[in-house]
């Protein structure tokens, strides 16, 4: 890959806002012929917002992409309550277990401890950490603090969640043909009750949201006996908003009930999801028993077995499409980030303009924060912007309390125009010659 090119871009735009720039540079890393195009547009993208407190906040919410992000394989994250078969699902696809933390052996010639124990599976909550299962030359498990500082891995952004999280995070590497194209993210089981949430020593919802932004597919696993969506699970699903196109639902262990019960379970699951996922579209649900055991035909009958086999084929086809769609998704993410940066520039410029020149700044700022929804409406009407592109009002209000609006930067129309031209003309032109690297395999 052309990783050095990104370094040149960042050096040339030192002190600038690089959110859009670094995302767009991804296309250069794959396609050398597009370097000149990115070079022409870097000034407009990289300078849409000057380095200000608000820009620093935007960067923290949508972290700057690094070379490892561009080189990373597509990721699939599995979410669900405990014992719904997340770890077993990965094991089923790999046809073997992956290395998991149990026993640490310190090697005198190694820079970090290497863990050789296998992942444990059981009816109790067994996965108590986030585990990234990825390709490697040999089988080993690397602790989270080590993973977060490795330049060749796309997990440096997780350091913002602190040591409490990194001690519950690890990377499991093993040689496997599937892992050469896809990386899996196994997660701790979501437990029910407010008490379970407060016992976590790190921001579980925040970590889930961070991975959701990085992943190409998110699988929500349920089983027939765990259809209730707990308070924490509702918060987890809510944190996935904006990534609805990545979400798939898997009703696992479906051979534990007969055909009549399965129909009722499916209806109950759709009813529960409809209360949490507020979308007019029907969520795609894969039904099956994703483990290495044969289907329980005594409960499901021959029709159920045929159904499960077809559903598994559909799910596997969806997984196989992920590498092919990875390039398209990078472009899609770039467009989303560019639009978000543009909206952000409009908002902070408007807030600065509404501030008085001399007296009453504190009262004016408090009034703007209290009426932030109305201010969003003014910006939307003035610049004819889609309301769906604006950030969450409550979250934006909470963050703004830590900044002085009079220190925000003024809007630069030329920068906005440069981004509009890029999104309106240059990106469509780029897509005409777009090639998928996986098509060459």
Written overview of the protein:
With 441 residues, the protein is an alpha/beta fold. The chain folds into two domains: 3-68 and 333-440, Topoisomerase, domain 3 (Orthogonal Bundle), CATH 1.10.268.20; 73-293, P-loop containing nucleotide triphosphate hydrolases (Rossmann fold), CATH 3.40.50. 49% of the residues lie in helices and 10% in strands. It contains 17 helices and ten strands. An eight-stranded mixed β-sheet has the order 5-6-4-7-1-8-9-10, sandwiched between helices. A two-stranded antiparallel ribbon has the order 2-3. β2 and β3 (114-115) form a beta hairpin. α1 (3-12) runs antiparallel to α2 (19-30), α2 crosses α13 (297-353) and α13 crosses α15 (372-383). The model is unreliable at 1-54, 101-116 and 120-126 (pLDDT under 50). InterPro entries: DUF5600, Dynamin_N, G_DYNAMIN_dom, P-loop_NTPase. Residues 70-324 form the Dynamin-type G domain.
Task: Please state the oligomeric state of the protein chains shown.
Answer: single chain
Straight-line distance between termini: 16 Å
Widest β-sheet, arrangement of strands: 5-6-4-7-1-8-9-10
Which structural category fits the helices and strands?
alpha/beta
Query: What proportion of the residues form beta strands (DSSP E)?
Result: 5-15%
Query: How many DSSP-defined strands?
Result: 10
The biggest sheet amounts to:
8 strands, mixed
What name is given to the CATH topology of the largest domain?
Rossmann fold
Low-confidence stretches: 1-54, 101-116, 120-126
Task: Give the integer mean of the pLDDT values.
Answer: 75
Portion in helices: 40-55%
CATH class of the largest domain: Alpha Beta
Query: What would you say the CATH architecture of the largest domain is?
Result: 3-Layer(aba) Sandwich
The coarse overall form would be globular
Number of discrete domains: 2
Rg value: 24 Å
SSE sequence, one letter per element: HHHHHEHEEEEHHEEHHEHEHEHHHHH
């Amino acid at each position: 890959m052309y990783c050095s090119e990104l370094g040149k871009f960042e050096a040339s735009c030192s002190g600038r806002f690089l959110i859009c720039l670094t995302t767009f540079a991804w296309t250069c890393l794959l396609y050398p012929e597009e370097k000149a195009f990115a070079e022409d547009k870097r000034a407009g993208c990289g300078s849409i917002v000057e380095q200000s407190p608000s820009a620093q906040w935007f960067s923290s919410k949508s972290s700057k992409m690094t070379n490892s992000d561009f080189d990373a394989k597509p990721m699939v994250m599995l979410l669900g309550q405990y014992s719904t078969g997340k770890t077993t699902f990965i094991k089923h696809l790999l046809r073997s277990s992956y290395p998991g933390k149990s026993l640490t052996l310190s090697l005198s010639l190694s820079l970090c401890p290497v863990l050789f124990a296998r992942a444990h599976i059981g009816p109790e909550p067994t996965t108590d950490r986030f585990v990234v299962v990825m390709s490697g030359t040999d089988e080993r498990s690397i602790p989270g603090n080590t993973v977060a500082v490795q330049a060749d891995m796309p997990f440096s952004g997780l350091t913002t969640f602190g040591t409490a999280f990194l001690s519950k995070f690890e990377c499991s590497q093993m040689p496997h043909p599937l892992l050469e194209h896809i990386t899996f993210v196994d997660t701790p089981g979501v437990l029910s009750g407010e008490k379970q949430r407060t016992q976590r020593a790190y921001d579980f919802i925040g970590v889930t949201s961070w991975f959701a932004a990085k992943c190409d597919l998110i699988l929500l696993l349920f089983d027939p006996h765990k259809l209730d969506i707990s308070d924490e699970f509702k918060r987890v699903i809510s944190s996935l908003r904006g990534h609805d196109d990545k979400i798939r639902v898997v009703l696992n262990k479906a051979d534990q009930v007969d055909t009549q019960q399965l129909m009722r379970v499916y209806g109950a699951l759709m009813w529960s999801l409809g209360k949490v996922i507020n979308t007019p579209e029907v969520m795609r649900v894969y039904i099956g028993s994703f483990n290495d055991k044969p289907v329980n035909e005594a409960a499901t009958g021959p029709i159920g077995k045929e159904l499960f086999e077809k559903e598994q084929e559909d799910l596997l086809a969806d997984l196989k499409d992920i590498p092919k769609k990875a390039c398209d998704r990078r472009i899609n993410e770039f467009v989303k980030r560019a639009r978000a940066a543009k909206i952000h520039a409009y908002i902070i410029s408007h807030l600065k303009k509404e501030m008085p020149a001399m007296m009453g700044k504190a009262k004016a700022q408090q009034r703007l924060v209290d009426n932030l929804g109305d201010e969003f409406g003014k910006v939307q009407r003035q610049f004819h912007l889609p309301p769906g592109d604006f950030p969450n009002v409550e979250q934006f209000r909470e963050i703004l309390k830590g900044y002085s609006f009079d220190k925000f930067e003024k809007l630069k129309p030329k920068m906005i125009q440069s981004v509009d031209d890029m999104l309106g003309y240059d990106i469509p032109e780029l897509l005409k010659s777009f090639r998928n690297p996986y098509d060459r395999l």
